[in-house]
Amino acid sequence: MSAVLGEDLDARLRGAAMAWLDRRCTPDNPVVDREELLNFIFEGQRCPLIDNQLGIRKPRNLTAALSILTTYTSDGQRAPYEDALGDDGFLRYKYQGNPQHYTNKGLRAAYELRLPLIWFFGVRQGVYLPFYPVWIIADEPELSQVAVGVERGQLALAENASSLSPVERRYSQRVSKQRLHQPVFRQRVIHAYDESCAICHLRHTSLLDAAHIIPDSDDRGVPSVSNGLALCKIHHAAYDANIIGIHPSLTIEVRTDILQETDGPMLKHGIQEMDGTPLNLPRRRIDRPNKDAIEQRYAEFRAAG
Fold this sequence. Notes:
Helix content is about 35%, strand content about 20%.
């Protein structure tokens, strides 16, 4: 893109990239694949939004980095992505090798210039969930990393990061989880279940949730696919309310008093007729429901009944 020069090149490119993502990513299809990102066209010329080999994209004609990327790895091959969340509630992103590498300099430039970036987070091989705008809010060279803010409210907090109150830290942690961790968990779980409800097989992605088996409010509620179920919104609500439970044999159980009720077709066909049917499982064993989590959650369901 050597010919695409101008004093406002940086602003034009960032604006064009984010506007394209606004159009490209929809509730039914919020992810984008690697080839699309490598072949992004800006003002008539190919301008990749990610680096072909590195995690940080710093175009030659820009001073600062344009995007960062987290490669997809399955739950059995990686530490939980919460490890990137600091005690202050800000997410961290590691340098690309040598601190003086041009990509790391690009991250520091984005920090100094307060420029927005795009974070592409891998949810399966070659497929990414984009988060934007995000900002580099602190440089931590002694740890070979930068801190990343995913909401404008975190920019103000970063100015006094060393003296955040407990309330501010909790706010920052909640923002980071809601803006990045929860959407990543949702995409990974829904993909593992082939974009269908594990109970009724509904395939409208916009109507699917990633339900936790052990709630994320519980210390044992880890954000791994094996602690998740792809459920449509009605079955997610029924599962959380202990109207529906999942037996350790991975069959669906409807609470006895609900089976005895008489109501409309939703209750009859959507809930009562699910009793005794097998749970639809992911193809990969590593993604299937964790046995201990299912047993613990089933005990809570039985106690509620």
